[in-house]
Amino acid sequence: MAALTYLIYYCVAILLASVFGGMIPKWWNLTHRWMEIAVSFVAGIIFGVAMLHMLPHAILSALQSSAQSPHATLLGLMVWFVLGFLAMFLIERFFCFHHHEAPADHSFDPPHEHHHDLEHDHEHGCSHQPHSDHVHDITWSGAAVGLTLHSVLAGVALAASVMHGHGGGTLPGLGTFLVIVLHKPFDAMTIATLMGRSGWSVAAQSMVNALFSLAIPLGAGLFLLGVSPDVGPVWFALPAALAFSSGVFLCIAGSDLLPELQFHHHDRWKLSAALILGLGVAYLAGRFEGHTHNLPLPNTPAATKAES
Q1: Is-contact 172 164, C-beta < 8 A?
Q2: Which end of the chain is more exposed for a tag (fewer CB within 10 A), N or C?
Q3: Would you tell me how many other CB atoms lie within 10 Å of the CB of residue 72?
Q4: φ and ψ at residue 31, rounded to 5 degrees
Q5: Apex 288 CA angle, 172 and 56, nearest 5
Q6: Where are its TM segments located (predicted)?
């Protein structure tokens, strides 16, 4: 099956997941505990895909195709990795969107009082400064913009993963697809919940969520345009795109896991088990993807033998 066909199937499934996520607040009253467990599980998959799939594949692809020295090649890839992490970090810092709580949780409500306490700050906002009376409330428009930018980057990651694996993979891009299709409902639910608390109608929520669901195909399309034959060979762009995407995914995973580590002392065993289970799913997804790197690395005995 052609890589583009896989990408279309993945995008359709992600669109459906986004629509489903936007309807969750209307169908179920999720509890804080189950939401945290689900977030830990998905964050484990994100972390595993970033570090066990994207970054290793980026390194191997770059070493096999680059004419530079291995040191220069690796340094260039790590620059792209840092840029991906920084891009996601700045999106979260300035748009303050990555906030996954149960729809009934009070953390979406405007705070009525302010105490100089770290745990209280964490519960009632997304970027409070301790020992300050300033409150940074979450708005649905800010969340929508931030999540849209995040989704465009995720679309780039999906297209890069599929294009990388199409040469010999059984299910190219499966790990990245799982990350996005499982994380997308949380994002859509965030927007729908915030809009509902701001008094917007169900029709308005559905319209915004429908537009938001198109961000993944938009990112994938932008990547495909950037690596079209008219622009340049796809393998020149793939290692950098994979390294950049792994940095993006690492930042997303950290955003979900680190607050839990510092502020959620309850259910530590369950949350830890969910994280480990997510890592296991990421590892197994890599086995199902099935693509390999058969070209010998430069400056290795295998490469020397191949050249002779």
Answers
A1: yes
A2: C
A3: 11
A4: -90, 160
A5: 65
A6: 6-25, 37-60, 72-91, 138-162, 174-195, 207-228, 234-257, 269-286
Which pair of tokens denotes residue 263? 């502020």
Instruction: Say how far apart CA 85 and CA 169 lie, in whole Å.
Output: 27
Contact status, residue 183 vs residue 42, Cβ threshold 8 Å = yes
Residues 168-201 pLDDT 10s: 557 888 999 999 999 988 888 888 888 888 888 8
With beta carbons less than 8 A apart as the criterion, state whether 124 and 138 touch. Answer: no
pTM over 0.90: no
Contact predicate 175/56, CB 8 Å: no
CA angle 232, 148, 150 (to 5 degrees): 65
* Amino acid present at 72: A
pLDDT at 107: 44
- The 3-class SS string of the chain reads CCHHHHHHHHHHHHHHHHHHHHHHHHHCCCCHHHHHHHHHHHHHHHHHHHHHHHHHHHHHHHHHHCCCCHHHHHHHHHHHHHHHHHHHHHHHHHHCCCCCCCCCCHHHCCCCCCCCCHHHHHHCCCCCCCCCCCCCCCCHHHHHHHHHHHHHHHHHHHHHHHHHHCCCCCCCCHHHHHHHHHHHHHHHHHHHHHHHHCCCCHHHHHHHHHHHHCHHHHHHHHHHHHCCCCCCCHHHHHHHHHHHHHHHHHHHHHHHHHHHHHHCCCCHHHHHHHHHHHHHHHHHHHHHHCCCCCCCCCCCHHHHHHHC
1: confidence class by pLDDT, cuts 50, 70, 90: low
Pick the closest to residue 223 from 303, 130, 158 (CA basis).
Answer: 158
Q: Write the pLDDT tens digit of every residue in 226-244.
A: 765 554 455 557 889 999 9
